[in-house]
Amino acid sequence: MFKPARILQVAALSLSLAGCASTQTAAPMAPNIAPDPAGRPGEAAAGMNPPAESTSIKAGSSVPRAEGFLSADGRLKPDIQAYAQEVSQRRGVPLGHVESLLRAAQYNATAAKLMAPHPARIRRSWVTYKNRFVEPVRIKAGQEFWAAHRARLDAAAKEYGVPPSVIVAIIGVETIYGRHTGNFRVLDALATLGFRYPDSSRPERSQLFRDQLADLIQLDHEKKIDALSATGSFAGAMGLPQFMPGSLMRYAADGDRDGRIDLHGSPDDAIASVARFLRLHGWVPGLPVFAPVTLPANAGTLVKGGLYPTYDWRQLEALGVRATHPAQPAQAGGWRDHKLGVVDLIDEPRKQAEYRLGTPNFFAITHYNRSYFYASSVADLAQALAGKMGYGGPN
């Protein structure tokens, strides 16, 4: 995830909120509401967190208005040649192999256009965003996907502690269960956004794509993916769960136990990979996504933003937050024993906001996509699906 925002296919978006978590709806918009951390909806990708300083590829640069990657004599341009040499050295890939893939990469003007900054600020609308994802088509398709892969979903839930509904909801939001996985060649998309990112004011973003390109090259060298034929979104996200190369390398799982990971053709691999990703990013088995609470009228002032919860339950109680069932004792390992965060779901056109209290499991989903809208939509779709299937809900 990235800006990191998880780059979904343009066609993929949507979700709704669910019942267990007590929320405050249609509250007046507070003047100091924290901005939605994702910026544009659907623009982050699993695995787009900035790499550790020691692993980031420093060579190379982004030239927004340039296009090709080769000089007139057919050689890689100097900055890209320097990048090739560093990738070879840092990743242990033969230089000739790196150069061959980079020479094969082609500038993709459509990917650059889709990533370009919007000329005008888009007003955020939680209601509009939610209604794109928690809707009849995804709910029906999600039920069918769940029924078809029930055994694998139950196995993943047992192994990783992530409810089936959450896994199914993420795949539904990302690609509607494989209907929209993207037809951009990943090599071209990553090279375009790594070396020709369309916004020169955001050098950190082009750096992220160059690092993802290095991951793709390494995966190709290890024969785990064919970089010349792999397709995905305009940002390089692949398969049913839309994993970036870095996520494929570090978090994907071989769900069908056939000795290879295929996020396009194996729903079992996609299911296991989503579950493993969430568990490795802080998912706590047994916790709800949203804590069942009533928030005070000034909930907007409690929003801190970010991808990690910071409040203790005692702090929140002192600030006026109340558990929906205060007489019920906090069980060991219950949500009151963990850090919590107030989530703001802003609707600027309607001049209102909804607030919820996120547990570590909410914030685990934000590592898949940094948008609070995204994570809340996943939770809502998951709740709707669990209601239809009769078990495995997020709350």
Automatic annotation (TrEMBL):
It comes from Parapusillimonas granuli. Residues 1-26 form the signal peptide. Transmembrane segments: none annotated. The active site is at E174. This is Lytic murein transglycosylase B. GO terms for biological process: peptidoglycan catabolic process. Keywords: Signal. Residues 29-61 are annotated as: Disordered. It comes from the Bacteria. GO terms for molecular function: peptidoglycan lytic transglycosylase activity. Residues 79-383 form the Transglycosylase SLT domain. PANTHER family: MEMBRANE-BOUND LYTIC MUREIN TRANSGLYCOSYLASE B (PTHR30163:SF9).
